[in-house]
């Protein structure tokens, strides 16, 4: 037999990961114990090892392993290569080479990739739903209409409109350039980076990629590590369905994202929090890389007393808890209404919650869970703050083991509480009361500009005043994120841009706006060799000056006078 002595004992398992260590096997002097183990490599052989302490130092924390002569020590498995700055630089180089080859610019390539995404979503719908359930316990129905259907719709529109989007736009020319013509050409930017988020981990990953592809770019997607099942699935699906030379997925967390951000990109598209948005923008500034930041904020809903209360309550319930249990950037973050109307509204919301999720929402299969224990703890601390814990009027139940929090409503929490200072991003909904509904606008404008703002009213004057006075990324009147036929407002209306302002983000996308977000609008002026006037060239004479002034001031009469040597001056 031959021996292999491994010490110190603490390093034993790291050096021989295929051996199960019996930590008490060396305590009794002279004892011999046999350990049978199976190699993780594909083999039909078992290996027998006899464990005994070295004879000179029987109690020392070292260990001898004697392998029978017939046993062969498997070769150590190579460590998986980590994705670092060097790997990221190589990736960007490959994508730039693919882009410079011109393949991504062609209409045919763009269409082929869009059709592949469409095919991917149809063929792997079940896998997508399962991944979303693993990450968020997202109900299958919600997963379909808020994730899968959204991607399908984006693909269909892009395939239908792509030729029109790619066509140069005609532009007017002036008298100074006559004879001439001009156009605006949409050209792809190059290699772009999409960093997505976890709350809608499929649609908010794929939709920006669709925009990047329709514009003709080479693209890297970095999915969120907080939704690991969807991240892993996206990596596999993109590898299987899309052109790997121009569309790639990089999984990982902070180190991998940092490595990507160290590279020079032609655009970075990020969806997430304002805190990380600042980090993204700082990294992009080093390379003068333009960014689209889809962030969030505290989205208010102002409710007047003249509304249809039942419809309003259902739409608030849908826009808060049906939207991923409040884990959505455009979900209702807080409500403002009058003191007199608040009790009626609370009763209506309580009934709406019961209609949608039953008398015990914690047992409902139609509501998502909190994404992680960290986010659960954050929400729990908001609920337990001494300023607000006694303000709960509906709900409040929670289960940390299952990462569930019931729809919870607070009444008149203090303005300096954490609940009113930070974006909630969960199933907690404060109601703030005011004397007059118009007072709500001052309250909204005292906070950073939100991604969305909502108003429920039948008063046209109030509606117009709200639209003119409140600055937000988007706005909906008498509805929220969803309405009764389950079509997403703003998010699905591709003729409207979706994006923030101020703290809630910059840039916009959806439909044609996605194409524009990943394109450069190149101005092109076409002129012939005719009509070359000597007026534009030195030497400058008084006659030339008069003619130039006449042309610049406009009016055919002035030009005729200048050509005849006359002037009104």
TrEMBL record:
**What keywords are assigned to this protein?**
NAD, Oxidoreductase
Family indicated by similarity:
Belongs to the aldehyde dehydrogenase family.
So where does this one cross the membrane? none
Q: What is this protein called?
A: aldehyde dehydrogenase (NAD(+))
Q: Which GO terms describe its cellular component?
A: cytoplasm
What biological-process GO terms show up in the record? aldehyde metabolic process; response to abscisic acid; response to water deprivation
Q: Its domain of life?
A: Eukaryota
Q: What class of enzyme is it?
A: oxidoreductase
Cite the GO molecular-function annotations of the record: aldehyde dehydrogenase (NAD+) activity
UniProt-listed InterPro entries:
Ald_DH/histidinol_DH (IPR016161), Ald_DH_C (IPR016163), Ald_DH_N (IPR016162), Aldehyde_DH_dom (IPR015590), Aldehyde_DH_NAD(P) (IPR012394)
What positions does the domain Aldehyde dehydrogenase occupy? 84-524
Substrates-to-products reaction catalysed: an aldehyde + NAD(+) + H2O = a carboxylate + NADH + 2 H(+)
Q: Could you say which EC number(s) this protein's record lists?
A: 1.2.1.3
A single Pfam family it belongs to is Aldedh
Return the PANTHER family for the record. ALDEHYDE DEHYDROGENASE, ALDEHYDE DEHYDROGENASE FAMILY 3 MEMBER I1, CHLOROPLASTIC
